[in-house]
Each structure stands twice: as structure tokens, then as C-alpha cells.
Design brief:
Length: about 450
């Protein structure tokens, strides 16, 4: 090759490299421009669509219900990918309603899935009307959650019933098939023996096992995620509890109302019953309120809107303060709840069990309470840190301080996201659940006031 040819070749190589660089730069700019043009409304729809898919495409095939967990890396503990969760499925049926309303699926597709789920639940293991925490998806038989936790789980059952009653309200005035679905759900609702789970005392017990009876001995009282269980138990048309069970058991004879002040905000109710920390993980502000509308919901112990809004704002203010100096905490990254953690599973919350882990469901499911702060977090995830996003939306948890994230999902964390975002946007699930006549009667029986439409 002569010198002239070498020079020409070099020029072409330089031009080619420059053109490739320009092309890559154009792609990058286009991607950044696309991100910048994503409206707040479109972002919320995207989050809802991805998290809805966990309960649609990701459902267990035999039951149509939610898998307890989905690990995108295929690494499952004890080969449990066929385990379905009752509480997570209760959240999931509400997410499917969101899918219908948002046009992700048709009404007919949603109906067919609900028929499958309700048919499955009518044949699955139940214990005095209560389903267990877990079922083996292909068989419908109980999958023990723990050695003695192999029977009825009244809390998980309450989460399932909350979702099913919401579905029934959606379809009850529809065509014959839809009316039949609502009737089938009503039958399941009437079969739950809420009052039996009191053991004749003034409190509800979480578990019963045909093998171990009441040995788990878990009376549910003091504020946590279980308010919906007491509301439904009081609302039951067949096996209702007396008001005393709520006031003496759940409300601890009034001690539940001994609040404190944390980061300048009243906790409203007493979180100390569960440890030494003045507040808890944020799922306490979500699980009972996917259908139960806290707007204007008041009894002699609390204003439940103020309770939940302050709970979320305390988490936000804690992240701003960041007393343990974890990387990333601040106005764009906040919110802790029970979720995966570096060493398994942990009940992350301000103060005590703060391990530097952010759980996206905490802030995203708090949209009704903290729309500005939750949107800041959503934009961080989707516009700045998309490595934390996968097929079914944000991964369950991450820690910048520990350089830790896994492509893992949990139904109980993904489910509240599309539901609470929809409640923020339209009030869909709140409006449906609060129309239920049994529920309205139960709330009044317990001394609640609430807006009636």
C-alpha cells in the first residue's frame, strides 16, 4: 500500500468512526428526549401497566392467582415458584380491575380470569371459611407458611375478601355471567366464619390449624395492617363479631390512640405496641386501604386520612434527615416497608430496622397521601435509575449503600402499586368497595363515620 492509499484509508476510518459516534450520540439524545417528554400521566400509566402484568402474564396457570414471588433470575428458594398467595392475590384481583379500566385487557378477558380464580377458591382448602396464607397452585391444597401455620389465616383471607367484594361491586349489575360471578363471590364471603376466630373472646386470632389448633396464639390488637380484618368481621352477614371485639381487642380498650410526635408529625395511633419505634413499615398505610377509603374515615380513635398521610410523610422526612447516612436517601429516594433485603427479608422502617434499603412499593403506593413526593421517587426510578426496573415494574428493593439489587418481585409489594395509583387518579377501587352495603353496615356498627355517595 503506497503512502497516498494509506492517507485515504486513514481518512475513511476517521470519518467512519465520527459517523458512528454521531449516530450513537443521536440515539442517546433521542432516548433522553423520549424520557424527558414522558408526561406524569403517561408515567403513572406505564407503572400501572408493568405492575398489573405481574398478576396477568405472571399468574400461576392452574389457579389464575398471584405467585407468591417471581424471580427473573430463576433462583427460587425450595423450588416454590408454584406457590400462590392469598393476600397478594386479593391485591391482584383489584389490579386486574385497573387493567380493565385502563384498557390493558378487555372486560371479557378480565371476567374470564375472575371466573377462574373464584372457581378455584371455591374448591381450595379452607378452614372454617378462611383460606391459608399459601396454597399449592396446581392442587389447591395448603402449603404451610411455617410449621404450625398450616391452616386458616384470617388476615390473608381478609385481604382476599376485600379484593373479591370490590370485583363483585364492579360486575353485579352486568350481564348474566357477570351477575353470576358476583353471586359466587357473595357465597365465598358468607362462608368465612369470622366470629369463630375469636375463640369466644373479645379479640380476633390470626391463625387456626387443624393439626395445632390455636397454638400459634396470635391475637390481633394494636395498630398494624389488619384494620380491614376487623371491618370485614363486623360487616359479615353470617358470622359477624360484636363491636366489643373491635374496641377491646383491636383498639386495646382505647390504648391504641396513645400517639406520639415524630419528625414534627402526630403518629395519630400507637405504633409502639409492636416495638420501640414510633412508626412502622409503610405497608400498614396500604394493605387495609386498597378498598377501604381513608378519606373522611373517622372513628373515636383516629382520622384515618391523617394517620396514613402522616405515616408516609414521616418516612419522607426521615429520608431527608437520613440519620444513618445511607447513600441515596433524600427527596428522590425514600420509603421503607417489609420487603426483600440483603440477608433475606426484613421489616424496614424509620429508626430501628433501617438497613439502607429502599422498597419502591412504599413511596409508589403512597401516591394518594404524598403525590408530589411519590412522583419525585417515580421519576427517579424511571428517568434516572432504569436499572432498577424490570418486566413487572420496579424490583422489590435495592440498596445503594450495599450495592445490592436483585431482579426479584413479591406479590404483596407489587399489588398495592397499581391499585393505590388508581385510587389517587380516579378513586376506582375506593368507590367500588365503599358501595358494598354489608361493609357500610359494619363500619357504622363499629362507630365509623365516612362519606356516603
Amino acid at each position: 500500500m503506497n503512502k497516498k492509499t494509506q492517507i485515504i484509508t486513514l481518512i475513511f476510518l476517521l470519518l467512519g468512526g465520527w459517523m458512528i459516534s454521531c449516530k450513537n450520540l443521536a440515539k442517546t439524545n433521542k432516548k433522553e428526549e423520549s424520557k424527558a417528554q414522558l408526561s406524569d400521566d403517561s408515567l403513572l400509566t406505564k407503572i400501572q401497566h408493568q405492575t398489573f402484568q405481574y398478576f396477568w402474564d405472571g399468574a400461576e396457570p392452574t389457579s389464575g392467582m398471584a405467585c407468591e414471588r417471581i424471580h427473573m433470575d430463576g433462583n427460587y428458594p425450595e423450588n416454590d415458584q408454584a406457590v400462590v398467595t392469598l393476600g397478594g392475590s386479593g391485591f391482584g384481583v383489584m389490579a386486574i380491575l385497573v387493567g380493565i379500566e385502563r384498557g390493558f385487557i378487555t372486560r371479557e378477558e378480565g371476567l374470564a380470569r375472575f371466573q377462574k380464580i373464584v372457581g378455584y377458591l371455591s374448591k381450595a382448602d379452607r378452614f372454617h371459611g378462611a383460606w391459608p396464607h399459601w396454597l399449592n397452585g396446581p392442587t389447591g391444597k395448603v402449603k404451610p407458611f411455617g410449621k404450625k401455620d398450616n391452616g386458616g389465616d384470617l388476615v390473608e383471607t381478609a385481604f382476599m375478601i376485600q379484593g373479591l367484594l370490590t370485583v363483585a361491586e364492579y360486575f353485579k349489575t352486568g350481564n348474566e355471567a357477570e351477575k353470576q360471578l358476583a353471586a359466587d363471590i357473595d357465597k365465598l364471603w358468607r362462608e368465612v366464619e369470622w366470629s369463630w376466630y375469636t375463640q369466644g373472646k373479645d379479640v380476633l386470632y390470626w391463625h387456626w390449624s387443624p393439626e395445632y389448633n390455636w397454638e400459634m396464639n396470635f391475637p390481633v390488637g394494636g395498630y398494624n395492617e389488619c384494620l380491614i380484618m376487623y371491618v370485614l368481621a363486623a360487616s359479615s352477614p353470617t358470622f359477624p363479631i360484636k363491636p366489643e371485639v373491635y374496641h377491646k381487642g383491636w383498639a386495646l380498650n382505647g390504648a391504641i390512640a396513645k400517639d406520639t410526635v415524630y419528625y414534627g408529625l402526630n403518629t395519630v395511633l400507637n405504633f409502639y405496641e409492636h416495638g420501640n419505634d414510633p412508626t412502622g413499615p409503610l405497608f400498614w398505610a396500604h394493605y387495609s386501604y386498597l378498598g377501604l377509603n381513608p378519606n373522611g374515615l373517622i372513628d373515636k380513635y383516629a382520622d384515618y386520612w391523617k394517620l396514613n398521610q402522616n405515616h408516609a410523610l414521616i418516612h419522607y422526612k426521615y429520608a431527608l434527615d437520613n440519620p444513618k447516612k445511607f447513600e441515596g436517601y433524600g427527596e428522590k429516594q425514600w420509603g421503607m416497608t417489609s420487603s426483600y433485603s440483603m440477608n433475606g427479608y426484613a421489616g424496614h422502617h424509620p429508626g430501628g430496622e433501617d438497613l439502607g434499603v429502599i422498597s419502591p412499593t412504599a413511596a409508589l403506593s403512597s401516591f394518594p397521601y404524598t403525590p408530589t413526593e411519590s412522583m419525585q421517587f417515580a421519576k427517579y426510578l424511571y428517568l434516572e435509575a432504569d436499572s432498577l426496573i424490570g418486566k413487572y415494574g420496579p424490583y422489590d428493593a435495592y440498596s445503594h449503600s450495599s450495592k445490592w439489587v436483585l431482579p426479584h418481585y413479591l406479590a404483596i409489594d407489587q399489588g398495592p402499586i397499581p391499585v393505590m395509583i388508581e385510587n389517587y387518579r380516579t378513586g376506582l377501587l375506593w368507590n367500588l368497595f365503599m358501595k358494598n352495603e354489608d361493609v357500610k353496615g359494619g363500619l357504622k356498627k363499629l362507630g365509623f363515620s365516612f362519606p356516603e355517595k
